[in-house]
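A student in our group prepared the protein record below, which I am reviewing. I have pasted the whole thing underneath without changing anything:
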Amino acid sequence: MSKVASSNKLIKDYEREPVPLEMRKGWFKLSIVWMGAVIALSAIILGGTLAGGLTMPQAIIASFIGTFLLACLSALCSLVGAKTNLSTAMISTFALGRYGSYAVSIVIALALFGWFGVQLDLFGASMAQIISDSFGVEFNKQLLVVIGGILMTTTAVIGYKAIEKLSLIAVPLLAVLIIASLVKVVSGSGQNELANNLFGEPLTVGVSVSLIIGSLAVGAIIGPDISRYARSPKDAVISSYVGFFIGFSLVLIAAAVIAKATSQVDIIAIMLGLGWGTGALLILILAQWTTNDNNLYSSALGFSVIFRNTPKFVLTIIAGTIGTLLAVGGIYDSFIPFLTFLSALIPPIGGVYVADYFMNQSKYRFENLENIKAVHLPNVGVWVFASLVAFMTTPAPNGFGMFSLTGASGFDAFIVALLLQGIVSKVVQVRTSGSLSM
């Protein structure tokens, strides 16, 4: 096999076609990829935030409820990905039409591309702090951002294969680190101290559940980007529950226990205080890598639907380069409100395509793509309306704060879109059957 053929095989990621049967994976490997995607520094910090404002029993309850709802959300969306073996952006073509899918692809691509830059900035800052605290050397943060950008772009360029291999390394290492940290802090703390130690802003269980859902709602909605590699729908559903309900909840609870015992949320300070040294901190950075390359990966899948004649690896390199340069310049600090706005538009997309798929399964076949309408206006209308609900239930300044449903605006928008799209699809079916009979 020539070098060119080998390179093409390495970066082949089936971005505009169904993943072939021989490339599909079982639930275990999919679960590892999900864990790599959802477990990052931000997840551990969230666990510490819960510990600061809740008692330990409350933190456990909130973690289980929030992650279970996220797992249900992911399972529904991932089921569609496993049935079609297509990416989220490609699936949206069936639901919203060719031009409607362009709007979806732009929203997904820009939002995730933006968060890639934000997380990359966190990566650089964390690495600089580790080097400073461990070796007393002040290292240029921007240079570390560039190095991180190159590494994350490389795995995203290769696609699912590289993300899976990296997750298979990072997830076990992170599990060992968390278990060892738990053993160390629990052995030196009393049960009552762990349960009742409050050191942060007070929270309720309901608000905490909303924080948990909001932290990864977008990741659950773009589940088809991972589940298109599932060997069966059952594998997709199982991996969603293992990744979100088991993996994410255990990390939140473990982080909460560690934070309770140390009365700190700063994970880097905690790890240095426990005496683990730079090895442990590098594992945490590796976990950040496995999360952020997923952002760029899904962003490139979205761009590939818009720029159909450009290879995905080229789009990934361009997006990764621009994202890295913007992160170096610190421009993303002013972009976060805009990224929050874009992210609110993504959950209702999931509600639309899930409901439409279950009402029109025969339509969701790759060979039908050529016959799809330019725009499915009723479905686009559902997306727009549910997005407005997301903004109306999002507190100011990022939203209107007009009312509250579940407390998690993304989850609100998904449920509204799911129910409304089910009604719209049924009405369209009845009208279509009526026209045919006449």
Summary: The two ends are 59 Å apart (CA to CA). The CA atoms of residues 44 and 171 lie 14 Å apart. Residues 21-192+201-433 form a domain with the Hydantoin permease fold (CATH 1.10.4160.10).
